[in-house]
Design brief:
Blueprint (H helix, E strand, L loop, with lengths): L1 H5 L5 H54 L1 E7 L3 E8 L17 E9 L3 E7 L9 E5 L7 E4 L7 E8 L8 E8 L8
Antiparallel strand pairs: 1-2, 2-3, 3-4, 4-5, 6-7, 7-8
Protein backbone atom coordinates (compact mmCIF):
# COMPACT_ATOMS: atom_id res chain seq x y z
CA UNK A 1 0.00 0.00 0.00
CA UNK A 2 2.74 2.42 0.84
CA UNK A 3 4.35 1.83 -2.45
CA UNK A 4 1.25 2.97 -4.40
CA UNK A 5 0.88 6.19 -2.42
CA UNK A 6 4.40 7.34 -3.15
CA UNK A 7 4.03 7.06 -6.92
CA UNK A 8 3.18 10.43 -8.50
CA UNK A 9 0.97 10.72 -11.60
CA UNK A 10 -2.12 12.24 -13.17
CA UNK A 11 -5.63 11.03 -12.77
CA UNK A 12 -7.83 10.29 -15.78
CA UNK A 13 -9.91 13.43 -15.15
CA UNK A 14 -6.80 15.65 -15.07
CA UNK A 15 -5.63 14.17 -18.37
CA UNK A 16 -9.04 14.71 -20.02
CA UNK A 17 -9.26 18.34 -18.82
CA UNK A 18 -5.73 19.17 -20.01
CA UNK A 19 -6.31 17.49 -23.39
CA UNK A 20 -9.54 19.47 -23.85
CA UNK A 21 -7.76 22.72 -23.00
CA UNK A 22 -4.99 21.85 -25.45
CA UNK A 23 -7.47 21.17 -28.26
CA UNK A 24 -9.19 24.52 -27.59
CA UNK A 25 -5.87 26.40 -27.67
CA UNK A 26 -4.74 24.64 -30.87
CA UNK A 27 -8.13 25.41 -32.47
CA UNK A 28 -7.78 29.10 -31.65
CA UNK A 29 -4.24 29.22 -33.04
CA UNK A 30 -5.36 27.38 -36.18
CA UNK A 31 -8.22 29.84 -36.64
CA UNK A 32 -5.81 32.79 -36.38
CA UNK A 33 -3.45 31.24 -38.94
CA UNK A 34 -6.29 30.57 -41.40
CA UNK A 35 -7.60 34.13 -40.97
CA UNK A 36 -4.13 35.60 -41.51
CA UNK A 37 -3.61 33.50 -44.64
CA UNK A 38 -6.98 34.60 -46.02
CA UNK A 39 -6.31 38.32 -45.48
CA UNK A 40 -2.63 38.37 -46.46
CA UNK A 41 -3.23 39.12 -50.19
CA UNK A 42 -5.37 42.15 -49.30
CA UNK A 43 -2.77 43.40 -46.82
CA UNK A 44 0.01 42.94 -49.38
CA UNK A 45 -2.00 44.79 -52.06
CA UNK A 46 -2.68 47.65 -49.67
CA UNK A 47 1.01 47.86 -48.73
CA UNK A 48 1.94 47.88 -52.43
CA UNK A 49 -0.56 50.71 -53.08
CA UNK A 50 0.89 52.79 -50.25
CA UNK A 51 4.45 52.23 -51.50
CA UNK A 52 3.47 53.18 -55.05
CA UNK A 53 1.60 56.28 -53.84
CA UNK A 54 4.62 57.39 -51.84
CA UNK A 55 6.88 56.88 -54.88
CA UNK A 56 4.51 58.90 -57.10
CA UNK A 57 4.38 61.72 -54.54
CA UNK A 58 8.16 61.75 -54.32
CA UNK A 59 8.45 62.01 -58.10
CA UNK A 60 5.80 64.72 -58.31
CA UNK A 61 7.33 66.85 -55.56
CA UNK A 62 10.82 66.47 -57.05
CA UNK A 63 9.58 67.78 -60.40
CA UNK A 64 7.59 70.56 -58.75
CA UNK A 65 10.68 71.71 -56.85
CA UNK A 66 12.50 72.03 -60.17
CA UNK A 67 9.58 74.01 -61.57
CA UNK A 68 9.91 77.48 -62.97
CA UNK A 69 6.25 78.49 -63.10
CA UNK A 70 2.77 77.01 -63.06
CA UNK A 71 1.03 77.62 -66.40
CA UNK A 72 -2.33 75.88 -65.87
CA UNK A 73 -3.80 74.75 -62.58
CA UNK A 74 -7.03 73.01 -61.60
CA UNK A 75 -7.94 70.55 -58.86
CA UNK A 76 -7.43 67.63 -61.26
CA UNK A 77 -4.56 68.90 -63.40
CA UNK A 78 -1.38 70.94 -63.18
CA UNK A 79 0.95 72.10 -65.96
CA UNK A 80 4.26 73.69 -65.16
CA UNK A 81 7.53 74.48 -66.84
CA UNK A 82 10.39 72.57 -65.29
CA UNK A 83 13.82 71.15 -65.96
CA UNK A 84 14.09 67.51 -67.06
CA UNK A 85 17.01 65.19 -67.72
CA UNK A 86 15.93 64.03 -71.21
CA UNK A 87 17.63 64.81 -74.51
CA UNK A 88 14.30 66.10 -75.91
CA UNK A 89 11.00 66.98 -74.27
CA UNK A 90 8.90 63.82 -74.20
CA UNK A 91 11.88 61.70 -75.22
CA UNK A 92 13.18 58.63 -73.44
CA UNK A 93 16.92 59.23 -73.88
CA UNK A 94 18.51 60.57 -70.72
CA UNK A 95 21.13 63.29 -70.81
CA UNK A 96 24.72 62.64 -69.85
CA UNK A 97 25.59 63.64 -66.29
CA UNK A 98 27.74 66.51 -67.59
CA UNK A 99 24.91 67.99 -69.71
CA UNK A 100 22.53 70.65 -68.41
CA UNK A 101 18.85 69.83 -67.96
CA UNK A 102 16.40 71.20 -70.52
CA UNK A 103 13.16 73.14 -70.01
CA UNK A 104 9.95 71.26 -70.76
CA UNK A 105 6.25 71.55 -69.97
CA UNK A 106 5.10 68.78 -67.64
CA UNK A 107 1.38 68.17 -67.20
CA UNK A 108 -0.10 65.88 -64.58
CA UNK A 109 -3.78 65.01 -65.00
CA UNK A 110 -5.83 62.88 -62.61
CA UNK A 111 -9.23 61.28 -63.14
CA UNK A 112 -11.27 59.42 -60.55
CA UNK A 113 -9.20 56.27 -61.16
CA UNK A 114 -5.68 57.20 -62.31
CA UNK A 115 -3.07 59.93 -62.83
CA UNK A 116 -1.05 60.47 -66.00
CA UNK A 117 1.97 62.55 -66.99
CA UNK A 118 2.70 64.37 -70.27
CA UNK A 119 6.08 65.88 -71.08
CA UNK A 120 6.18 68.31 -74.01
CA UNK A 121 7.93 71.43 -75.29
CA UNK A 122 7.42 74.58 -73.19
CA UNK A 123 3.91 75.98 -73.72
CA UNK A 124 2.59 72.70 -75.19
CA UNK A 125 0.12 70.82 -72.99
CA UNK A 126 -0.59 67.74 -75.11
CA UNK A 127 1.47 64.73 -75.99
CA UNK A 128 1.86 61.07 -75.16
CA UNK A 129 0.32 60.52 -71.73
CA UNK A 130 1.91 57.96 -69.44
CA UNK A 131 -0.11 56.53 -66.56
CA UNK A 132 1.91 56.89 -63.40
CA UNK A 133 -0.59 55.77 -60.76
CA UNK A 134 -3.88 53.87 -60.61
CA UNK A 135 -6.25 53.17 -57.77
CA UNK A 136 -7.42 56.60 -56.62
CA UNK A 137 -11.07 57.50 -56.07
CA UNK A 138 -11.01 61.29 -56.42
CA UNK A 139 -9.90 63.60 -59.20
CA UNK A 140 -9.34 66.48 -56.74
CA UNK A 141 -5.64 65.90 -56.29
CA UNK A 142 -3.99 69.32 -56.49
CA UNK A 143 -4.29 72.41 -54.28
CA UNK A 144 -2.40 75.68 -54.72
CA UNK A 145 -0.98 78.39 -52.47
CA UNK A 146 -1.66 81.31 -52.59
CA UNK A 147 -4.09 80.46 -55.46
CA UNK A 148 -4.19 78.60 -58.79
CA UNK A 149 -3.24 81.67 -60.85
CA UNK A 150 -0.16 82.62 -58.78
CA UNK A 151 0.81 79.23 -57.35
CA UNK A 152 4.17 78.97 -55.64
CA UNK A 153 3.27 75.90 -53.55
CA UNK A 154 1.46 72.82 -54.87
CA UNK A 155 -0.11 70.28 -52.52
CA UNK A 156 -0.76 66.79 -53.89
CA UNK A 157 -3.27 64.49 -52.16
CA UNK A 158 -4.02 60.95 -53.33
CA UNK A 159 -7.21 59.34 -51.98
CA UNK A 160 -7.29 55.55 -52.29
CA UNK A 161 -10.43 53.56 -51.47
CA UNK A 162 -10.33 51.01 -48.68
CA UNK A 163 -11.61 47.61 -49.76
CA UNK A 164 -12.54 46.89 -46.15
CA UNK A 165 -15.07 49.72 -46.23
CA UNK A 166 -13.36 51.80 -43.57
CA UNK A 167 -11.89 55.26 -44.00
CA UNK A 168 -9.99 55.58 -47.30
CA UNK A 169 -6.23 55.95 -47.24
CA UNK A 170 -4.95 59.45 -47.97
CA UNK A 171 -1.34 60.16 -48.88
CA UNK A 172 -0.40 63.82 -49.15
CA UNK A 173 2.68 65.95 -49.77
CA UNK A 174 3.57 69.23 -51.39
CA UNK A 175 6.41 71.35 -52.64
CA UNK A 176 7.33 74.90 -53.52
CA UNK A 177 8.61 75.89 -56.93
CA UNK A 178 12.27 76.30 -56.00
CA UNK A 179 13.24 77.85 -59.32
CA UNK A 180 10.20 80.16 -59.52
CA UNK A 181 10.70 83.86 -59.85
CA UNK A 182 8.82 85.31 -56.91
CA UNK A 183 7.32 88.76 -57.17
CA UNK A 184 6.09 90.83 -54.23
Amino acid sequence: MRRLRSQAGYTLIELLVSMTMGVIVLGAVGSLVVSAMRHQPQISKRAQDVTTARWVLERLTREIRNGIRVDKATASSVSFETYVRHATCGGTTFLAASSASIKCEVTYTCTTTYCSRVEAAPGVYTGKATRIFEGIDSSSVFAYTPNAEDATFIEVTLHMPNAGGHVPLTVSDGASLRNATLTY
